[in-house]
């Protein structure tokens, strides 16, 4: 029997194109191409025709996380893109599987996060015949992505995947789709005919025009009531060091958007989040660092902003400049690079905004007033608890370096003000698209990245009971992969608010629930913690601050299995009187 080395020598002696030439399958080509682009994580649900792709990915060293719903899988893959700068992959089956992932693709595009969706599709020889799960997938995905294509043959797979990865991270990041026909998956091709492609280069770093930087610096130094707004674009570009220097050296007040929290720590003395509306309404010059004047920032328009406010816009995307408000200065380029340019100019000018100005005095007074109102609500002793009491006790115990995932209506909005972030890219929430159902997918992604990069780091997922319902079965995924996740459900028996058990029982006397149950209500006192227990995790049902503290301490001390804490609060609990929803009114 010939040895392995002898076999290698025989192959080398064979003429090109012989039957002994090494072949590779379509599934292997997809996996190899993704690995060549430094893809580390793949999330999905396997079935015909993509099963072999998942096996091939694992064989080549890509981590595969099997989810319970394609939507959650796509949310997870996109969150990996935000956290690491390299897209995650969502692997889906044809037809309905891909359609389920479209929500995640749209969410990634709206958040400007890179993600690659690889979808199986019908065999080519069955197109227009009514094939199993046949659907115009490439065409459908064009509405939800930056790039959507099907390789023309197996040899082209590496080039198409390289372009998809490159498009997902160049310019404004977003979703890209690669379609793999079912007959490609097991089809074999000679390796020598494959067009292998090297890993794409890192995204080019562009800087703003020098004249624009000088103009922006001049506008800022002549302002009387300046404000910096830090968006998640600044977090994605890793601009934390340069923005922190700008805040410190120039003494400027700053306001983070929800996922801009932590670029500069929330406990920094210049953070004016507690006086958000006052800061927005009276600032005369605002610098936007990777933040958009969309609904989250009231479109930059009166009465939430001054009619004569001067906007200095820093963004990677030229098409974003000037949306809703004509900027006084535009700085097109990488957020970090442009911030360094601006900082350099201001240092040369030796300018610092005075800390004893009337503007600073007014902001600090409003911050103190709002914080006192929140503190009074947090310290209330009445039962059931309110949101502020829950978040007060959670805040006291959370590790400073934990990654916070938050979704829900009141749960997310109040949690934004009550739960601080000290590090960039440590908060994930409903984002620009306001998407409910992202929570557990985001938590799984964050936990996978944390497990690899910072094994001791915890992921805390704070959910409303309604939001949890969108992806609750992903608890099984968390337990299956033994991820360091603590889920806290703030349970008010409904959407916005609900009914207590007595009111629910009384309501049922009126007739069928479909005719008389309030559309915003859910079943009172649901024991969501039992879902975690069913899969081997730790579940806690709590009603008092003491129970909450004990359960959270136990969950954080538990290193072996995930936990879920189901916190019952007053079904009528709401925001404080002056803390309304962003879309209409906001905290004064």
From TrEMBL:
Which reactions does this protein catalyse?
2-hydroxyoctadecanoyl-CoA = heptadecanal + formyl-CoA; 2-hydroxyphytanoyl-CoA = 2,6,10,14-tetramethylpentadecanal + formyl-CoA; a 2-hydroxy-3-methyl fatty acyl-CoA = a 2-methyl-branched fatty aldehyde + formyl-CoA; an (R)-2-hydroxy-long-chain-fatty acyl-CoA = a long-chain fatty aldehyde + formyl-CoA
Q: In which pathway does it act?
A: Lipid metabolism; fatty acid metabolism
Q: Name one Pfam family in it.
A: TPP_enzyme_M
Please tell me whether the keyword Magnesium is annotated for this protein.
yes
Q: Which residues form the Thiamine pyrophosphate enzyme TPP-binding domain?
A: 411-567
One CC-aspect GO term: peroxisome
Record GO terms (molecular function): 2-hydroxyacyl-CoA lyase activity; magnesium ion binding; thiamine pyrophosphate binding
Q: Which CDD domains match?
A: TPP_BZL_OCoD_HPCL, TPP_PYR_POX_like
Where located?
Answer: Peroxisome
Q: What is its main location?
A: other
- Keywords recorded for this protein, A-Z: Fatty acid metabolism, Lipid metabolism, Lyase, Magnesium, Metal-binding, Peroxisome, Phosphoprotein, Thiamine pyrophosphate
> InterPro entries, per this entry?
DHS-like_NAD/FAD-binding_dom, HACL1-like, THDP-binding, Thiamin_PyroP_enz_cen_dom, Thiamin_PyroP_enz_TPP-bd_dom, TPP_enzyme_TPP-bd
Domain Thiamine pyrophosphate enzyme N-terminal TPP-binding per the UniProt entry, residue ranges:
25-138
Q: Which residues form the Thiamine pyrophosphate enzyme central domain?
A: 213-342
A biological process (GO) of this protein is: fatty acid alpha-oxidation
This protein's record includes keyword Phosphoprotein: yes
Q: Which family does it belong to?
A: Belongs to the TPP enzyme family.
Q: What is this protein called?
A: 2-hydroxyacyl-CoA lyase 1
Provide the species name: Pelusios castaneus
